[in-house]
Amino acid sequence: MSKVIIIGAGGVANVTAKKCAQNDGVFSEVLIATRTVSKADRIVEEIGEHFPNSKTKFSTATVDADNVPELVKLIEGFGPEMVINLALPYQDLTIMDACLETGVHYLDTANYEPKDVAKFEYSWQWAYQERFKEKGLMALLGCGFDPGATQAMAAYHAKHHFDEMHYLDIVDCNNGDHGKAFATNFNPEINIREITANGRYFEDGEWVETAPLEISQDIYYPKVATRKSYVLYHEELESLVKNFPTIKRARFWMTFGDPYIKHLNVLEGIGMTSIEPIDFKGQRIAPIEFLKAVLPAPESLAANYTGQTCIGVQVKGKGKDGEDKVHFIYNVTDHAETYKEVQAQGISYTTGVPAMIGAMLMLRGEWMQPGVWNVEQLDPDPFFAAMNRWGLPLEELSGIELVK
């Protein structure tokens, strides 16, 4: 039985907290801390309403995750074994600093990026390796779905299917409909920065940069649909090619509908996606921060969401029998079903469940090792078993090349 702090109270935190409530044999007490405590209070109210038999005790608190002394005071006052960071990626380093100072383990779902530069890389967090190791603490980076489960899929491929992985493609399809003209499925500021940045993929030992959404192809997503998919840069590519050096090419693909792209192009064209602050009535504000304020909150989309997501990893390479092989591991999640279970849309669900699983595996000792780690560096088998147990069943497809 373990005490944990969840920092953040958005759509993903809502899912992770409710899955902790379901898993009360591991999580005895959970404190949800955020800048706007009313959001955390609402999550706790819903847990009491939908999971009245849970033995997990929940409480809430206000915290500024940019402020290390304030984080330290919060952690010391509650005394958790670990912090699950579901705040903004800009705040990863301050929360890691607070965990080091207080002697608690750390987990997040997205790598650090500076607020003023759209730059996704692990170097800042990997630099904490020795400090966490010396204190006997563990930091698990990027334990959502992508990153997170996708890296476990790569590790599972390497452990059970391939002697050498040569071509790796991560595919992410949201074939859902939230009924809005334009909205993002997770934090708008982070989502739009990611999409409007240049694409990048790894090939033959080098990173190849592309214009935003320059490369596309139609991909069949099993049990869902065939959808036009675009190459983006995603952070897990950086760690995967580092930890699996036989990879010759690694790409990340995501689906977007034409109306979404049209809206995005207009917003970008008039400067609303810019991260450069401007003067507005005596205040400095980045246009993308204003845009975030007027767009629907991702968690507000859940009630009317229909359709499915399909996220998976295709690998081509040399199989365990020495023959050429192609294999695909994936999950399909239904938005309406996740709303029934935890009052969340499927994008939040597929990120929030792996965060709970990663924390559980750390707390039970199955994944616990001092230092800073990415998911693919750990044994994928208990993670796969937990995915199947806790609402994200995995399926496998062999011999069919879905991504060209």
UniProtKB/TrEMBL annotation:
Start and end residues of each Saccharopine dehydrogenase-like C-terminal domain: 144-391
Record domain Saccharopine dehydrogenase NADP binding: where: 4-140
Pfam families: Sacchrp_dh_C, Sacchrp_dh_NADP
Protein name per the record: Saccharopine dehydrogenase family protein
